[in-house]
Amino acid sequence: MRILMLGWEFPPFIAGGLGTACYGLTKALDALGHEITFVLPKAVNRSHSSHVRLLSPEEVTSRDVARAAPIIRQIRASGDPAAVSDLEREQWRGGTEFHSEEFRHVTFRAVPSGISSPYGPGAGVTPEQIEALMRREAGAEGAGVEAAGGGAGASGEPSAALASTPGFLGLSRPSAGGDYGGDLIGDVRRYAELCVMLTRGERYDVIHAHDWLTYPAGMAIARLTGIPLVVHVHSTEFDRSGEHINRQLYEIERRGMHSAMRLITVSFWTRNIVMHRYNVNPGKIRVVWNGIESSAGGTAPTKIRAKDKIVLFLGRITMQKGPEYFIAAAKRVLEKIEDVKFVVAGSGDMATRMIELAAQMGIGHKVLFTGFLRGTDVARAYKMADCYVMPSVSEPFGIAPLEAMSHDVPVIISKQSGVSEALTHVLKVDFWDVDEMANKIIAVLKHPPLRNTLRRNGAMELRHLTWEGAARKCVEVYEEAVGAMTRVAM
User: Which one is the CATH code of 126-159+294-464: 1.10.3210.10, 3.40.50.80, 3.40.50.10610, 3.40.50.2000?
Assistant: First the structure.
């Protein structure tokens, strides 16, 4: 099949698990022989590239930009993307198409946009800033701050201020790093316009749109071409914001879901949200669990001290991920076991609050904040861990537990996660039950037979969660969508 894939994350352009999912799924579909055109809103510093070579829109010449400007104005003025001439489209497309040796059937295109991360300015916080704040907060205790694993990898982006940020998803102001547009909705609109321009006249069998930022583009292309739209729901506004949702984003999600011929959700947990919160016909929804590469491995283990046990939290430090419950459980564990260090690997809008919370609880010297990790630093974090904890409040799926298990790490996850549907050989707990979470952490650390059983059986369980399996299920959904569109047209 010829697949037009719309996404806003792809390695090394990662802000969360979506980038990992897009990479794994694209690679598996490519291996199955399907032709994919993947349109990204922006490329990033290629020095961090670990998977594909990306051509940054910043490398498009000023002449290319000048050519594009009247095209964009024409689209906005006429409201009819079909008014763009073939010559104009070809002139713009010439500076945006690129390929990777890793993929045989995939073409990547990057369109200029301020979109980088929907998670806000916290993603730009550096380990140096975190360490400075930790030293300030821990000063009263006279405790030094240790660097996990010999130092975490910096984010590679310009620093953002360690301060609480008003507004939702950075809509009220851009980050200090400048890689995140202050007008996110405007960026989504511009991405949609350029996607329409880039793909006009092309032939595809199906459009696959990942998450809400790409839904408007998918809807516009589907309306103009009659190509069936499949939307992939990796998360919803209720996962990101709880009950205090942004109505504008909710409406974009709702329209995208109802416009699609088929929906893919990453779990039955997310399927239920889509059915009941967005009133989507369940007959349109198909559940496809995420997978993991069977050869995931990593670097050799790195220990902070020989006697220390390491408990790892790796993910965005946001409300959705439940970091405050991890810190509260750490306090309970340290009351029973002394030689334990808790590593918080990630960044987000709650980073400052979590550092302060750990200090207020008197465990600031036992909780290590690494900042955002990339590439081999992620593998090192897993390798040093004796236990991985994902205390998410609302997690559509959760790839990190699979990654931890692939590195032979026992896993504890919240019952409020999609991945809990797919895994048996892990320990599960309600995110709010910090006493039970602490008890399970202590059990893993103190009882080698339990730890070994989780490791052995977990490795076997991962064999059934592959990206190839996910890709084959997606192809079945594509075929359903094409069939449904044919019946509608008859």
Answer: 3.40.50.2000
